[in-house]
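Long-time lurker, first post.

We've been arguing in lab meeting about whether 2-acetamido-2-deoxy-beta-D-glucopyranose would sit comfortably in this protein at all. Half the group thinks yes, half thinks no, and nobody has a model to point at. So I'm putting the question to the forum: if I give you the sequence and the SMILES, can you give me back a predicted structure of the complex? Inputs are below. Any interpretation is welcome too.
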Amino acid sequence: MLTTLWLLLSFAVSVLRSHFSISCPNRHCQLALLSNNDIFLHCNASGAQWQFFFLSVKTTWTNNPFSNSNVETMPDGSLLIRNPLPLQTGFYNCQDKDGKKVVQYEIDFQDIETIHITHKGLGQEPLQNETLSLGGKELIFTHWEPWQDCNRCGEPGERKRLGYCYIEEPLETPMPCWLYLGDVNLWSSRTWPEMQVEACHVQCTSSNVDYVTFDNFKLNEKLGSAWLTCPLGSIYK
Ligand SMILES: *[C@@H]1O[C@H](CO)[C@@H](O)[C@H](O)[C@H]1NC(C)=O
Ligand SMILES: *[C@@H]1O[C@H](CO)[C@@H](O)[C@H](O)[C@H]1NC(C)=O
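Top reply:
Settle the argument with this. Predicted structure of the protein with 2-acetamido-2-deoxy-beta-D-glucopyranose, as tokens:
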């Protein structure tokens, strides 16, 4: 009998990068993401310089966000944010080596610890639209992403979609909640991000083949349990 089991990994950074890297062809993008999921922000500039402005602290622009930084500029200019926190909601500016602005991201890292999960088949209700009155009649609602792929093929499976809190003023473009609210204290469960799950059944095709990447772990029988972390793991896929 095997006393140890080795789970070996095939660590495909290029695959991970294409999954979790975000680019902004318009040079100015506003988006909502989940906290605690690593992401790459793309910036096509050699010698890229990133600057940050965090809405929660409302200081000034800075290029040195925290002493124990989870933010790293990659050789190709993109920015890797490991385990982003809700208080890192704000503006991310990339400049080229001459100081010219290449791209600006405005990102709301919505708190994954409050995510509201519902299963459609069990009749669980997602959060309902509400009206705020912060000055006008603002609608607060969940902006849903498309359903992700079914997790199985040829047998019943499940699929999920993520939804982010957005606020819309009449006749205006909706904005991610915390980019709209800034440092306004609105402690309402309506500001939670959401995940919805439903049953699915799809035929198998060759494109259904997917890879799971593990780090290198040794499971010891004496321990009885093990904690596996998935490197660069993400709820996005
Ligand atoms: C990056 O910038 C270069 C030069 O400006 C351009 O030729 C290239 O197409 C850009 N690449 C991408 C992926 O946008
Ligand atoms: C909630 O508001 C959004 C944005 O205006 C809209 O697309 C959606 O249909 C609304 N949902 C309900 C249940 O009214």
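For your lab meeting: The pocket of 2-acetamido-2-deoxy-beta-D-glucopyranose (ligand 2) is lined by residues 129, 139, 141, 168 (CB under 6 Å). The helical segments are 13-20, 177-181. Whichever side wins, do check it experimentally.
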